[in-house]
Amino acid sequence: MFAPATCRAVKIINSIFDTYCSWSGQKINKAKSFIYFNKKIKKSRKCMIANKWGFRTQAESKYLGIPLISRKPVKADFQHIIDLVRGKISSWESKSLSLAGRVTLINSVLTSISIFSLSHTFVSDNVMAEIKKLIRHFFME
């Protein structure tokens, strides 16, 4: 949910959560929940809202594996994707795979990892170049 950092917004969102919980019979796990603030919000306001809500605050996090950041992404923000592609490639015995087998693995596994993770945000050219280099090297082995 997105809302302005005001006490009124906290009350409205709490009301929405209470309604959801009463209708669904579920409870919100505050230990697993957090509030993500824009970097322009003052620390005192962040603390006041977090205390009123009972949630933790977090500067940066991931949602479904996608970094939630309020700045221009850098290569380090996507290192986990590069490492995931590298890990998949290293687990396969490329020398025992035919060319068609390598193409199949690239199309079904490696590109799906990249497409899901990178379709949600702008990624710098050097991240894409690194992933393409790993795939190219695996293909040419």
TrEMBL record:
Protein name, entry field: Ribonuclease H protein
